[in-house]
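Problem 12. The chain below contains 123 residues. Write out its predicted structure in token notation.
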Amino acid sequence: QVQLIESGGGLAQAGGSLRLSCAASGRTFSSDVMGWFRQAPGKEREFVASSTWSGASIFYADSVRGRFTVSRDNAKNTLYLQMNSLKPEDTAVYYCAADVDGDWLNIASWAYWGQGTQVTVSS
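Solution.
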């Protein structure tokens, strides 16, 4: 059974930092694309960042580029999201996703999802 388990969420002040982790189990995702999405209250889930297995192709949403960094440790089957210079508008539930087929921005293109971790940024 495939599982993606996020951790590292919590409360941060504006300008602060948090690091999210996504540990995958049940299969190896070392050759797949993995990504992060987020969903704020009352809003649709949106793409945040993604990385190919090698890290050669990394994409960020415009809203986080320059502040967030996605990385992965294939030996540990784990994806990370380093979030710096946090803003109140970054407040959301953050989801890890893996194994995409098609448009990376489309949540329907991703096969596996974690349960999400809450990130709250206070002003």
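Discussion. Residues 25 and 65 are 28 Å apart (CA to CA). Students who got a different answer should revisit the alignment rule from Section 12.3.
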